[in-house]
Amino acid sequence: MALKLGFIHKRVWRLGCLLLLLFGLVLAGYVPPASALTPEQKLVYEVWRIVNRSYLDGTFNHQSWLDVRQNALKGHFANHEAAYTTIQAMLKSLDDPFTRFLDPEKYRSLQVSTSGELTGVGLQITLNPQTGVLEVITPINNSPADRAGLKPRDRILKIEGLSTENLTLDEAAAQMRGSRGSVVTLLIGREGEQDQEVILVRDRISLNPVVSDLRLSPQGTKIGYLSLSQFSANAVTELAQAISILEKKGASAYILDLRNNPGGLLQAGIETARLWLDSGTIVYTANRQGIQGTYEAFGPALTTDPLVILVNKGTASASEILAGALQDNHRAQLIGETTFGKGLIQSLFELSDGSGLAVTIAKYETPNHRDINKLGIKPDQIIPQPSLNREQIGTNADAQYQAAIELLSKKLVMNNEYSGKK
Known about the structure:
By secondary structure, this protein is of the alpha+beta class. It contains eleven helices and 19 strands. It has a six-stranded mixed sheet with strand order 10-11-12-15-16-19, sandwiched between helices. Strands 1, 13, 14, 17 and 18 form a five-stranded antiparallel sheet that branches. β13 (280-287) and β14 form a beta hairpin. α9 runs parallel beside α10.
């Protein structure tokens, strides 16, 4: 009887331990209900939930995202700034410079930079994913940075004497923005050269993305030249208007110059591809579950005339979507240098307190399922070229442009001969 009672007590004790263990596990994963959270904790949880639902990498950089949540919500936040610091630390653990938090001021600035104009030095920047170094994607046309001769892949080592080593993209951008007429000093590193200080006077940066002109080939053929500097909100409308005007002027072929175009709005890149395609896939997007969406052209194209696209190492993001779509659909040939290789898509979320969150939600693939992130797009005709000043673009000094003129001239001659035989 004593043996039986001892056995029962032992089982009861084991069951009690098991219940305590389960209770402990439940508590470890416990998140207070929304009503019990402070406003600052709600903001942290809001960010965690968006990343949990949307982020491209389902391993969250090989860590437990649940544990990240628990650790983030443990502390007491005296104010919103304390919550912002916790959010930034939480996102930093993802090791993705493109997934980032923007306080209300930076969020408003980012919205302006894709839709209107801003005041600053006119640089598109990125954090190199391999080195973590702040780099120039491209200077904006006719901006202070452009006039000072800054180039794609230049490294921004210091801003006003402050090392950029631990700055986020938005912190670096904020350091370079400022009132018109004020001065900012950058320490620039360039491959094969000594580091140099560049003094820039901030100015109003106008985001007029399209330049168009009717050019004559040596054979007298009318060729429409279109330069697209950024995929801002008005880019598609302006480009469509420019193509229509050039068509009326008798253009029989086109050069689309995407050199040093750092991208911008994904949808603008897709809509621009639709201007040139009657049908076909433009781009695939893939999230962590696999292929998420397909964007198609549904025609009619504004023109079916021959097209050459100029690209270089400053051609990035939405520009690469456009170039890849037209190359894979055999609508255009690419001339220049291998492109930048940014194949990730960020979505912008507005948070409850007016701040913002940029999250890498997907990657894109060209119609032929090329993943170009960190690889870029290889042109059909590779022509290396040193940087040109503004006045040299589209002239005899521009070897890539001259190669495009030559290629289009040959195409038009062949087309005319074929038509004559018919």
